[in-house]
Write a structure and sequence with these properties.
- The strands form three sheets. Strands 1, 2, 3, 4, 5, 15, 16 and 17 form an eight-stranded mixed β-sheet that branches.
- It contains 13 helices and 17 strands.
- By secondary structure, it is of the alpha/beta class.
- It has two domains: about 100 residues, Roll (Urease, subunit C, domain 1); about 280 residues, TIM Barrel, CATH 3.20.20.140.
- The protein is globular, with a radius of gyration of 20 Å.
- Strand 12, helix 8 and strand 13 form a beta-alpha-beta unit.
- Bound molecules: N-(iminomethyl)-L-glutamic acid.
- N-(iminomethyl)-L-glutamic acid binds next to helix 2.
């Protein structure tokens, strides 16, 4: 951190959520009539209203929360699948095969076009209060296009995930093991320099346990952290595999048995729920209450993608988690901030304490409960991302 950088105070905060219990009240570390001083993108101090700095931003008594940490998105893609969505609302089931439609459009797009499309979505996500976003590849599925998508993703985030094992592409139809061989070999070689993580889709219609294990082990051997799409469309081995391999996160977790929950509670893998996906695919919502009560770590993420969840609204995910997954507003806010940080194995985001990233969301509301209480209302007034102010309304 540059100690001679100009300081800024976000002052006159009505209710501040820090997520640091040592700073304030309860698990959310709440403080009233507070201020936050930051410089060079990092928090310097959290204190009572009226701290002095070189510049001052007036929060006008509103509620301020840590920026949302969206630990699961697929922001780099081309094309549109609104027709598939409409058919689903008319009764068609969601199937992994739809991914191939986005693969065809993405393969046909240049890096500049993919960058332009992803930039629009990144701006949209920031306006929704998301200050850290994980971005996966997975709509290229050949060496050149996966590399292109990862390079584009890396221009928007340090949290880039190689998802070559999303589905088997058409040219490998009936030869899934050959495709896994490509993913674990030349594709991984091309991807690893641009990614921090490796992921796979463990599901009927995508990849089985053995194939996912091979992909994650190859990625780990190449120095990548591991995460897994698990138990989205039905019960299966994904969650147990993720815990066994100490993946940072098992994502979806829509269908969980008691032993899946026991495994999550006994390990350090975060159960990342993606309720906008269950909404958009008409799946049941997972019972987060059981998972939290068992002692497992949980996160909420948007899963922004063109097929199963085309939204950047973390507020919508929080509202669904409270309304339909039996989380409290406090738990849902924690899951969308510090929970996402844990799913990325980070402790410098999702919290507001000295040294953490200066990532904050100013709500046009006296309390974060309004995110649920006033569903669908645009409550994000401004976003401070790494110390830079972005006005939304
Ligand atoms: O996380 N489940 C796999 N991948 C995405 C869906 C991608 C798509 O349908 O295009 C997901 O839901």
């Amino acid at each position: 951190m540059n100690t001679s950088a100009p300081t800024t105070v976000l002052d006159n905060i009505g209710l501040l959520v820090t997520n640091d219990p040592s700073v304030g009240e309860g698990p959310l570390g709440m403080a009233r009539d507070a201020s936050v001083v930051f410089a060079d993108g990092h928090v310097l101090s959290v204190g009572a209203r009226g701290q002095i700095a070189d510049e001052r931003i007036d929060a006008e008594g509103c509620c301020v929360i840590p920026g949302f940490v969206d630990s699961h998105t697929h922001l780099v893609f081309a094309g549109d699948r609104a027709d598939e969505f409409a058919a689903r609302m008319a009764g068609q089931p969601y199937a992994a095969g739809g991914i191939r439609v986005s693969v065809a459009a993405t393969r046909a797009s240049s890096a500049d076009e993919l960058r332009r499309l992803a930039a629009t979505r990144r701006v949209e996500a920031r306006r929704a209060g998301i200050t850290t976003v994980e971005i996966k590849s997975g709509y290229g599925l050949d060496v050149a296009t996966e590399q292109r998508c990862l390079e584009v993703a890396a221009t928007f985030s340090d949290e880039v995930t190689f998802l070559g094992a999303h589905v088997v592409p058409p040219e490998f139809e009936g030869r899934a093991d050959d495709y896994v061989h490509l993913v674990c070999g030349p594709m991984l070689d091309a991807a690893a320099p641009h990614a921090r993580w490796i992921d796979a889709f463990c599901e009927v219609g995508a990849f089985d346990e053995q194939q996912c294990r091979a992909v994650l082990e190859a990625g780990a051997a190449a120095g990548l952290g591991t995460r897994l799409h698990a138990n989205q469309l039905g019960h299966g081995p994904g969650v147990q595999l993720a815990v066994e391999l100490d993946c940072a996160s098992a994502d979806h977790c829509t269908y969980l048995t008691d032993s899946d929950i026991e495994a999550l509670a006994g390990g350090s893998t975060v159960a990342t729920f993606l309720p906008a996906t269950d909404f958009s695919t008409r799946q049941p919502y997972p019972d987060a209450r059981r998972v939290i009560d068992a002692g497992a770590r949980v996160a909420l993420a948007t899963n922004c993608n063109p097929g199963s969840s085309y939204t950047t609204s973390m507020s919508f995910c929080i509202a669904l988690a409270v309304r339909d997954m039996r989380m409290t507003p406090d738990e849902a806010l924690l899951a969308a901030t510090v929970g996402g940080a844990k799913a990325l194995r980070r402790d410098d985001i999702g919290v507001l304490r000295p040294g953490a990233n200066a990532d904050m969301v100013l709500l046009d509301a006296p309390s974060y409960t309004h995110l649920v209480y006033r569903p669908g209302v645009p409550l994000i007034r401004s976003v401070i991302e790494h110390g830079a102010l972005h006005r939304v309304s």
